[in-house]
Request: fold
Amino acid sequence: MRTVLSMLQTCLSRIGYLLKATALACVLGVIEMVQTQRGRRVLGALTLVAVVVGALVTRPIRSVPPGEAAVRVNRLTGGVTILDEGWIVVVPGVHEFRRYPLHDQVYRPADAARAGGSGAFQSVEGLSVGIDVSVRWALDPERMSQAARLRPDDIGSELVVPTVDGALHGAFAQHTVREIFATQRAAIQKGLEDDLRKALAGDGVIVKAVVIGSIDLPEKYKAGLEALLSEELAAEKMRYTLELKEKVIKQTELEAEADKVRRQKSAEAAGAEQVIAAKSQEEAMAHVLPLKEKEIDQKRLEAEAAKVTRLKAAEANAEARRIEAGGEADSRRKLADSDAYRLEVTGKASSEQMAREAALLAKNPLLIQKTLADKLSDKISVIIAPPSSNGFFANGLLGMPAAQAKAESEP
Reply:
């Protein structure tokens, strides 16, 4: 062991001697070259080449494109300068230069969108759930100077991604699949925004929004959840139906109550109208009654005058009827006397006429047949009939028996 150490020391000392000899030779060569014109030219050319190569390698002039900001840290003083877009001078070995984008950036864990993916989230039941989560973030220009030394070169992959993944897994592991999928989705999203803002605010990162997109559930859980959601939808529909029916019943009750109030108001208005009409009628009657009394007195006087007039007229009619009755009785008596006289004279004339006709018929029996024919029809002019053995051919019409007819026919 000691031999090895001694050999190492010997080698190091020899290397030191060689380096010192090389440095001295370089210095002597430079002094020799400076003393001649050709040497100075060669030295200038070498110096220019060294400067150009150093500029190309170290890049002392940097540019900041639009939409980005730069941080220049002085290694000697520790000062931090925030620089906007433009050209910037960076001294090699003295300044440390970093560029950061100021526009919004979105981090979306692609391997966590499917339930069978490698980065799927775990729920409190231990089920793998695929969730499409998007986190929109940006750097805070006002706090770049405070956190410039703490930031890594790639903020997205070295700072934001681990922090977001840890917050997402921690948040989803505290909730059930049902809460993540339906009931607590908005609350989880709001909680993630608050947690990430607190966690990244110290590093100058602003979390602007956390959006939970589509959720990929396990197949068995998806089937059970669909059945449960169908039952819940049916129950919710029934609840809404019952609420609607209750509202309809309430509406019917309110309409009935409104109709009742309307009828009451109408009845009250009608009663008020009747009261007003009664009052106005009473006031009118107060003026009408004296007129009615005067009309009654006038009608009574008119009735008495009409009574007296009718009595006078009745007495006059009775006297006229008595006179007319007396005159009518006298005229009837005279008419009766004239009728008796006329009947007496007419009877005597008829008796004499019948006596003459009987004598004529006794002499000419065929006149009876002619008279009968005249009476039977005004269309018959002549009837020719053989004489009957019984005498008159119309005995059957007159209803005379044959013997009587024969006796009458004989002279």
